[in-house]
């Protein structure tokens, strides 16, 4: 580590840490299909260590270039299990359709939860519109021992019955309703462990977020109370990092170790980002029990290996 708290790898990748628990800016990399294996390995290592990593000035990237880079880092999924009308490669995160201002881990209503998401800024508002990530590993670690034990023995049901914004929308307009109809067009429901073991790092993390419908075996009041207790650990400000986007920025997050929230503070301004997700293994709890499907078949979305990733 230099005095600036940056680490430079042999491939020239420079990692500038942004916070104690998560977040790093990566310098010296031009993302694309032509990256060498060592650079890709360094990016992957930085992702696992810092949970969310940011690249600036990637103005050259197109949707195809973003996809080709994604193929070097992992196996891209289809854009989404249900929202597929916008294209074959990427999911448009467009303020005219939806605003993800609720804490979530991506696509947890299916069994094969994506391993990572790659998000590229395409159009940005004049003000506002940052995104905040939280470390679900730091959240787990911050729990006192009796609460860790409790969480490790819980499982939760996640569904896509509501879209991202359902909790906070008072009067959804027509566009919101159209998006929600597509989002919910096939019903998915999966039971996940509340504490998952990361397949690559072995770290334990809370697996919660807005798609949780209930904690298995509890009354709805008990479910709500326990969900709040654990979810509040995730969103403690010390466990978060916030990114103010510029055009050309790319963010990549480890979807097994984070939640995120898109801050809706840009009024009617247009904001658009392009997301590609990478397939992930089916989560397992600390006792080795994997997640189980209750409804919906996500095989067409992601060809995840059944069980742990190699
Ligand atoms: O709009 C954003 O910044 C993030 C949206 C989101 O939740 C996602 O891309 O998965
Ligand atoms: Fe998301």
What features would you describe in this structure?
This protein is α+β, with helices and mostly antiparallel strands. The chain has a domain at 78-243 and 254-295: Clavaminate synthase-like (Double-stranded beta-helix, 4-Layer Sandwich). Helices cover 21% and strands 25% of the residues. It contains 6 helices and 17 strands. It has helices spanning 37-50, 63-73, 136-142, 145-152, 174-183, 220-234, and strands at residues 6-8, 14-17, 24-27, 52-55, 91-94, 116-123, 131-135, 155-159, 189-193, 195-197, 204-206, 212-215, 240-243, 250-254, 258-262, 272-278, 292-295. The strands form 4 sheets. Strands 1-2-3-4-14-6-16-5 form an 8-stranded mixed β-sheet, with helices on one face. A 4-stranded antiparallel β-sheet has the order 12-8-9-17. Strand 3 (24-27), helix 1 (37-50) and strand 4 (52-55) form a beta-alpha-beta unit. It starts with 5 loop residues before the first strand and ends in a 15-residue tail after the last strand. Fe (ii) ion binds at residues 100, 104, 106, 260.
